[in-house]
Amino acid sequence: MTNPIKGFSKLSKQGKIEWIVDQYFQDKEGAVELLQSYWHDDQKVQKLHDEFIENTVSNFYTPYGVAPNFLIDGKLYAIPFAIEESSVVAAAAKSASFWLERGGFKTTIISTTKIGHVHFMYDDDVEKLRTFIEEIKDRFYTDTASITANMQARGGGILDIKLVDKSDQLENYFQLEARFETCDSMGANFINSCLEQFAQTFTAAIADDSRFSESEKAVQIVMCILSNYTPECVVRSEVSCPIEQLTDGSGISPEEFAQKFSRAVKIAEIEPYRATTHNKGIMNGIDAVVIATGNDFRAIEAACHTYASRNGQYSSLTHCEVKDGIFRFWIDAPMALGTVGGLTTLHPMVKFSLELLGKPSAYELMSIIASSGLAQNFAALRALTTTGIQKGHMKMHLLNILNQLEATNEEKEIIVDHFKHNTVSHSAAVKKFCEVRGIKSPEEIKKA
Ligand code: MEV
Prior knowledge:
Elements lengths: L12 H12 L3 H10 L5 H10 L11 E9 L2 E8 L5 H13 L5 E7 L1 E8 L4 H18 L1 H9 L3 E9 L7 E9 L6 H20 L6 H4 L2 E7 L6 E10 L11 H17 L1 H21 L4 H12 L9 E6 L2 E9 L13 H9 L5 H24 L4 H15 L4 H10 L7 H12 L5 H5 L1
Bound molecules: (R)-mevalonate.
């Protein structure tokens, strides 16, 4: 029986571990040892990690892999991926090499504007409110001058503030909707600080204005927050080549490949069940680079899925056209990223990733990450429409099974060779392992 605890956050790290282990573990010593085995040897680095979040008791490793040969806008990148799923990095690298020989990825930053809202309730004359907001607009800018000074010096700032009437959808609901340019930073703190100041400016100004009655002045500010939906911060990455260059090695003709591939994309455009898996594969590529570069993958995920639903039905983020002998494949993805501030200056591996990428601007990083998503989708659709996905997956799965069984390198070599000509399954892999090791079942190893 476990007990609730008060003041867990106030316990020392050791105290927290003792409590967890005491409450939830049979093998208490083993649990402590495991947590400690994931601590970083360098205490400074460990302290940094401890302080990223709250109640830290250990670290949770994610593999960090690199996919080279990404030619993007004429520049060659080796892209870092932080991801636990096998095959993703291999797929990215394979697509990168394929397109390296066909002109690479070409990208366009469609727009870079971010949006935030002061959500509020107002129960009166809308026209009077509209006029008032126009009249006090300059105050929104002057009252946020100290917050925006640095951003303005870097070429960004507040672009626009307007009143949005949402009262037809929710009684008395209005927004102050503001647009921002945040340059190389993701800008969440900047935007939220501006929005909170707008709310203060607004409530103070309306309270001082004799045209409004006491009830009209009782504007209720519900909340001030940026939107992670960024349909005006969008990048396009595309690849294209003459159809005859779509040689695949799987035996399928370039024409048939182009046709099947574009049909697979069309299916994802009209069928939400498929679109979800299709976009999940894209996010394999996007999230992994977003994480490796210290950005917020939950924000990017949320934006991409909302964007994929923008026409009223969840649909593919990628599109394909086969026209006049040319195969064209592209992604449009919302991508609010930063290359300064936040984790980018704190996490040693994030700094490494950004250096590996040549210290990109946020706009360049948008292009890199969209290209990694497109590469991922190309690899997935290429496999799905030709050999099937399981061949590659099971190869990686086999290695995971063998690692779990603690097979030696020689054993792995023999078993991997065997499965080049045999179908991989968990039981078949275990059986072969036992045969190679000369045991009846893996239980024998545990007993020994
Ligand atoms: C697996 O993580 C991703 C795929 O399912 C994506 C797809 O089906 O397009 C292979």
